[in-house]
Amino acid sequence: MSVTHHPSPELLAGFAAGTLDAGEHLAIAVHASGCSTCRRLLRAVEGIGGAALEAIKPAAMKAGAFEDVMARLDRSPPQSPAPADRCADDDLPEILRHYRIGRRRWVAPGVTMRPIELPVASRSRAFLLRSNPGTHMLEHTHTGTELTCVLRGSFSHEGGRFGAGDFDFGDETLDHQPTVGDGEPCLCLVAMTGDLRINGFFGRLISPFVRL
Amino acid sequence: MSRGSQTIRMLSRTRRSMAVVRSSRLRRFGNERPGVTVEWATLIGRVAEGDREAFRSLFEHFAPRVKGLMLKAGANSDDAEEIAQETLLAVWRKAAQFDPVSAGASAWIYTIARNLRIDQVRRVARTGAVDHDAELDYLVDPAEPADDVMARNDEAGRIASALSSLSEEQSMAIRLSFIEERPHPEIADVLGIPLGTVKSRIRLAMNRLRALLDETK
Question: Is B55's pLDDT higher than 80?
């Protein structure tokens, strides 16, 4: 998989520090699980995290903390590495198997979605979006941000072509009309805050019915 | 065992040539001083065999640091204490999984603390829908070959070189904004730069880190 579009370094650093909103967190996790370039950046930031631990002013632990931990540790012997979970009967990324995914819903002609349940209430919603080959999405803008990981197939817009493994970021400054590539359906993971605003007279007419 | 860690500074404080970094990159990974790094890694290896004295040393060094970092990042005192204790418990449980080729001891312990912090935040704000460990979100695609020691060693070396080439101000900017989550006015204060430039400095630092990681191909 050759990845050409990556998340911003700031999003990756936020993920490495564990501070992203749950929807954004999932989008970056999915991208990074398949992108060695971004994983390298994550590990570098984790290295800075290690340095921060060494440089930080230590805060005294409560009296008896060590003894408490020793008592708890007596109830849990050292573990050997857990065998990797390699069930691969699905073509979704490994990470998504730990999330509960809802039923498929119709969104627009040629487009369906499945909501992903996030572990905590989040500013963003996450869902899997499946579009038929050659689908022209309506020209739209966003009121918030939209993080997209292409899992299968491809789409294109002014920003270029986005194939499996690529990451796309959209916000209110973007006004675009993606077209799904021919050949196979495009499956994306999307984390979105705010709403889509569909442009044009027709778009405004139907936008109450296009619910994402 | 040496308690010299207080003297550890940000790696970038002493800039090293690439050649030096390459020749000792195993020991230099993370921002840890050689010697100290090797000792912590060795201690983790002994913990994997059930050595309680080794564990005590790790606890005394790292638990107060994890607590300190959590406090800096905005956790309250009880939560910070709990994460610090849980982190060291996890060090005990997962010691056998620690891979000294891929990561420094501090960076490894940092990731454990980070994951526990995410879990704790999730417990508080849980929707009831899903409950899984944050650790699972940081797993790598199983298609990735994990058994190649040379490749892991090379990868660790690239990361160490990039970190050592970052300026002190740049690694501080990354650390303060992302790891410690300090507000921009504080970052401006620590770095001695105007408030209006904090955001662009952070972006520059991250772009430079990414460029350095790409360079060392």
Answer: yes
